[in-house]
Predict the 3D structure of the following.
Amino acid sequence: MAESVVPEGEGGEATRRDFIHIAAAAGAAGAGVMLVWPLVNSMNPAADTLALSTIEFDMTKVQQGQQVVIKWQGKPVFVRYRSPAEVQKAVADDHAGNLKEPQTDAERTKPGHEPYLVVLGNCTHLGCIPTFGAGDYGGWFCPCHGSHYDVSGRIRKGPAPKNLVVPEYEFLSDTRIKIG
């Protein structure tokens, strides 16, 4: 007796095998989506950080010649109430020849509120937190790598490529600001 051989694709066995392959591929794709979804979802902002997208600050807490550090979106923000001598020095240095990122003091402050300077407190080189008054230009100094900023937060010397960042902010009144 001769055995009958059924070529693939003509009998029921081949179609069952195809179904198993399709079902396995669909299951693997579904498992892949289930594994990747938490990673993709983690990139969305958390509900508690959305509340910190803006912050209000009372400027009466800062005395002339002083600086206050507040936290906004997990970053330090320097709020400095500059003395008239500091403002005068910052304006005089507007066109200094050694500014890596030329920017006038008026571009870094709000009109009518020139004594107040609001900048992010991270060095633009590697994100360290500079200290005030230790630099060569009367402003901030980053002790980690030696960047020197003037009283307007402009980079004057060292490895930092940019000025201290001025965040988006506005005066709500003469004594209150909103950052963000």
